[in-house]
Structures are given as structure tokens and as C-alpha cells.
Write a structure and sequence with these properties.
- The protein is an alpha/beta fold.
- The chain contains eleven helices and ten strands.
- The two termini are about 25 Å apart.
């Protein structure tokens, strides 16, 4: 992966689509630990919409600039002086849109993660963290009840005991514990972060897009208890009749790498 800290002016998240269909979204307020303002959430939603509609996009990497992944939502925008037209569910909808993306997603956790950003990363399919990072979900210490879909995501992905520990105690949790409870899929030294993310991205991009996208959606629906049998069978049938399956079988027989087209 290229270093996302490219010296650009701080501001809303940036989207870059590289060769091979690998997209990178970089949170871009390093001086404030990439805290998320309402304009940042609106930009993330636009980026997610663009990627969902782009058949060439194979994988998304979500990362931060500077020394932290993200400090979460800007709490100054939660006070009573906020504009009455502000959408109180904007953050939740942004995270839901990320999880609903058909292409696989990897959170490149370049540093610590706090508040709602912990759920933003959890909505990704894979999370790679660096030694020395930490996580804190401070909702209980602030008097906030976290939004329901986020609680469900923590429950379905980490289990009840881990969710209670993170939400009710509001403890600061070190990287090694995050790996143990399954929040992190990989924990590496900072100098190995890019190579580890690249390995995941290359594997995801090399596999058949129809199968990867379909199984991602099906697995998430099954985990939430919202799967529809007909929908799952429809995705299975779509892949069974696809050119990707014919190419995969031909490549296997010829002992060569497959060249999937996503059709």
C-alpha cells in the first residue's frame, strides 16, 4: 500500500481508485486524530455510493492519516447548539452504508481508534492493526446510549461478553486484547502494516468478484439473523451460471491463475 499521508491539506476523507480496482479512502484530519465532522460523514456516504455503483472496484481499504485511525465523531457537534436540521442518525447510516458495500473492505488501522470510529472499523470485513494502538468506546462515560445497529454489530462479530466489556466498562483496551477478542484480524509492527494489508487486498482482488461479493452479503445477513433463503439460493445460482465459475474451473484444470471478469 502507498503511504496515505501524502501531505494534502486536511479536510474531508479522500478517495483514490488505483489500478486493479483497489480503492483507498483516507480519513484526513490528522491534527485532530481524524475526528469525523458531519461534512466528513456526508463525504464518506458519497464515496460509498460511488464504489457501490462501480463494477471495476474490487476492494476498499479504509485508513487514517497521521498517528491515529480516528477519534470518532466530533463531540462538539453533539451539543444543544447544533443546527436543528442536523440528522441525528447520520453516523449510524454512514456505518451501515459501509457494511452494506458489496465489495470486500479492509480497515488499515494505522493507529488508535475511539468512539464511533470503532464501529466504522468493525463494519469492515477485515481489520489490521499496529502494535501500540488502543481502542476505547467511551459512550457510558459520556452518558450516551450507542445506536442499536452498532450494538448488534458488536454482538454478532465479537459476542456478548466482549461487547459488554467494551461498552459498559469504557476501558482503554490494548492491541493484544483486541486481537484476542477478535476485533483485530492481524496485529503487526508498524513497518509491516502495508505489506500485511497488501497481502489481504491481493488475495481478495484475485478471487472471483461475484462469489466474493455474494458470500460477503450472505454471511453478514446470516450473522444478523436476517438471511432470506431465496436470496441466498439466488446468489448461489447466479455464481453457478457465471463466466467466473467456468473460468475458475478452466484455470484449475490448466493449473494457471484464473482471470475473473466479474460476470
Amino acid at each position: 500500500m502507498d503511504d496515505p499521508a501524502d501531505g494534502s491539506e486536511p479536510g474531508p476523507p479522500r478517495l483514490r481508485l488505483a489500478a486493479g480496482g483497489v480503492a483507498t479512502i483516507t480519513l484526513n484530519r490528522p491534527r485532530h486524530l481524524n475526528r469525523l465532522h458531519r461534512e466528513d460523514l456526508a463525504m464518506l456516504q458519497r464515496h460509498f455510493t460511488q464504489l457501490a455503483q462501480d463494477p471495476a472496484a474490487r476492494v476498499l481499504v479504509l485508513t487514517g492519516s497521521g498517528r491515529a485511525f480516528s477519534a470518532g465523531f466530533h463531540l462538539g457537534e453533539l451539543d444543544e447548539s447544533a443546527d436543528a436540521t442536523d440528522d441525528p442518525e447520520q453516523f449510524e447510516r454512514t456505518v451501515e452504508q459501509l457494511e452494506a458495500l458489496p465489495l470486500p473492505t479492509v480497515a488499515r488501522l494505522n493507529g488508535s481508534v475511539y468512539g464511533g470510529a470503532t464501529d466504522l472499523a468493525l463494519a469492515c470485513d477485515f481489520r489490521v492493526g499496529v502494535t501500540g494502538m488502543e481502542l476505547r468506546m467511551p459512550a457510558a462515560s459520556l452518558g450516551l446510549h450507542f445506536y442499536p445497529s452498532g450494538l448488534m454489530r458488536y454482538m454478532s462479530r465479537l459476542g456478548l461478553a466482549a461487547a459488554k466489556h467494551l461498552f459498559l466498562l469504557a476501558d482503554t483496551v490494548p492491541a493484544e486484547e483486541l486481537l484476542r477478542i477478535g476485533y483485530l484480524d492481524r496485529l503487526v509492527a508498524a513497518e509491516a502494516l502495508d505489506a500485511t494489508v497488501r497481502h489481504l487486498v491481493d488475495r481478495l482482488a484475485a478471487n472471483a468478484p461475484l462469489a466474493v461479493r455474494g458470500m460477503k452479503l450472505s454471511l453478514n445477513e446470516l450473522a444478523r439473523g436476517q438471511a432470506d433463503a431465496a436470496t441466498l439460493r439466488g446468489r448461489e445460482a447466479h455464481c453457478a451460471a457465471s463466466g467466473d465459475l467456468r473460468e475458475g474451473l478452466a484455470a484449475f484444470a490448466a493449473r494457471r491463475p484464473p482471470r475473473f471478469s466479474g460476470s
